[in-house]
Amino acid sequence: MKNKIRLIVCLSLMLVLFASCNQKQDQQPKKATGVESKNVTTEEDKQKAIEEYEQNIKGVKEIKVAELDEVSAGKEITLYLGRKTCPDCQKFSKVFKPFVSKYEIYYIDSIAGIKKSPEDLKEFRTDNDLKTVPAVFRVKDGKITDRMNIDDKMGTTSEELQKFFDKK
Questions:
Q1: Is 87 helix (H, G, I), strand (E, B) or coil?
Q2: How far apart are CA 7 and CA 38, in angstroms?
Q3: How far apart are CA 15 and CA 75, in angstroms?
Q4: What angle do CA 115, 54, 162 make, to 5 degrees?
Q5: At what angle do helices 87-102 and 43-56 cross, to 10 degrees?
Q6: Is 152 part of a structural domain of the chain?
Q7: CATH code, 87
Q8: What per-residue confidence (pLDDT) applies to 20?
Q9: How buried is 130 (Cβ within 10 angstroms: 0-12 exposed, 13-18 middle, 19+ buried)?
Q10: What pLDDT was estimated at residue 73?
Q11: Keyword annotations for this protein (predicted)?
Q12: What is the pLDDT of residues 31-82, one digit of tens each?
């Protein structure tokens, strides 16, 4: 009888330990990136994410790569390269939104830009080592003078963006 009780107690303890260890693995700490992760799965969700992105960047001045030399002639401008169908750009736009109304920011849509001037955009991206979007940088006389490094996995914070804008 005592052996049965010991066995039951041991099994119960093992079960509790196993359950608590398993629960700790599921609860990974969230990193404060300012960018929330969201898996967009349905077409309706995708459309909502696109609409939210467009609303978040409302106020940027959209240009084509061909206009970049003229727009940045003799002055430094802030340029955002992104696209509405990019999940990372959609997440980034939530953090970027307050800066759009606060600063003059130009925008090149990385998909529409390809359709409107495919060779210009490809050449610009290649010449300036721009592999991924979103990308935020400063341009003067058509040349990048400063860029913000946006971590693909971690995103960026409002504080990091503010530091970039404060360097101006």
A1: helix
A2: 46
A3: 67
A4: 105
A5: 20
A6: yes
A7: 3.40.30.10
A8: 64
A9: middle
A10: 96
A11: Coiled coil, Signal
A12: 334 444 455 579 999 999 999 999 999 999 999 888 999 999 999 999 999 9
Half-sphere exposure of 51 (CA within 13 A, CB side): 6
Q: What is the pTM of this model?
A: 0.71
- At 53, give phi and psi (nearest 5°): -60, -50
CA 158 to chain centre: 12
pLDDT at 115 (0 to 100) = 53
Q: Can you read off the two tokens belonging to residue 100?
A: 């759009």
**Count of domains forming the chain:** 1
Burial (CB count <10 Å: 0-12, 13-18, 19+), residue 46 = middle
Place of tokens 């700790």: 24
Amino acid 73 reads A
In a domain, 30, yes or no: no
User: What are the C-alpha distances in Å from 14 to residues 2, 18, 26, 29, 156?
Assistant: 18, 6, 19, 25, 42
Yes or no: say if 35 and 159 are a contact pair by the CB < 8 Å rule. Answer: no
Q: Is residue 36 part of a domain?
A: no
